Amino acid sequence: MKIDSSVAAVVTGGASGLGRATAAALRDLGARVALFDKNKELGEQTAAELGALFCEVDVMDEASVDAGFAKARAAHGQERVLVNCAGGGRGGKTIARDKQTGEIVPYKTDDFQWVLGLNTVGTFRCTVKSAAGMAALEPTPEGERGAIVNTGSVAAEEGQIGQVAYAAAKAAIKGMTIVLARDLSSEGIRVNTILPGIMDTPLLGGLKTRAPQVYEGLARSVPFPRRLGTAEEYADLALTMIRNGYLNGETVRLDGAIRMAPR
């Protein structure tokens, strides 16, 4: 798919990190970009800086997502590109022990459901609604109506201690990739997933000042290059997945060849 001013795109989690970098890369190619994010202040600031449209959206809320797509489509037309970057986690072991009392503390089911709701269900919700809109478009000369990029994590394959909910959520995103691609193939819509490794996003970037030794240790754990990945490298792979018409149903690791240890 050629990315230019004729293409409308939606990026969830677009106010910062991987989403912001992807939105910026799409804008650099002329695409009309809408940012979905819960953070209104940062989202409006990012949109102004990039020349994008901000839509205050909680991907865990059906009505909020519907309103976001309605606003984006009213301004830009039906999107041909969706990049799902919204996500997050709540850490904790399946069961832990209180360090003072030795009491067994189970991981809360509510927290498990919240993590799956944000990552897996949120991604699926936006994918379904975007694909339904894409299906109404006229196909390109190559027969394409749209391209969707989802965001998993290397935790989908090597979840660490304390990542039971996050690993499950990201593994589900990886698992549904080929099924989404097959389900949507008759409509000319491609679906691929990126599994990022340790990325230098705002979530980890603060370690540079708060705990530089931890940050440097993370960088040294990557075989090559010995550093954290950048949001721009994620965006570059997302653009490849959008532009390469034969890339479909794939999950691609972006991790410097790291394989995560148990902790």
UniProtKB/TrEMBL annotation:
GO MF terms, alphabetically ordered: oxidoreductase activity
Gene3D superfamilies assigned to the protein according to its UniProt record, in alphabetical order: NAD(P)-binding Rossmann-like Domain (3.40.50.720)
Protein name (record): Short-chain dehydrogenase/reductase SDR
Family, per entry: Belongs to the short-chain dehydrogenases/reductases (SDR) family.
Organism: Phenylobacterium zucineum (strain HLK1)
Keyword annotations of the record: Oxidoreductase
Annotated coiled-coil segments of the chain: none
Keyword NAD: no
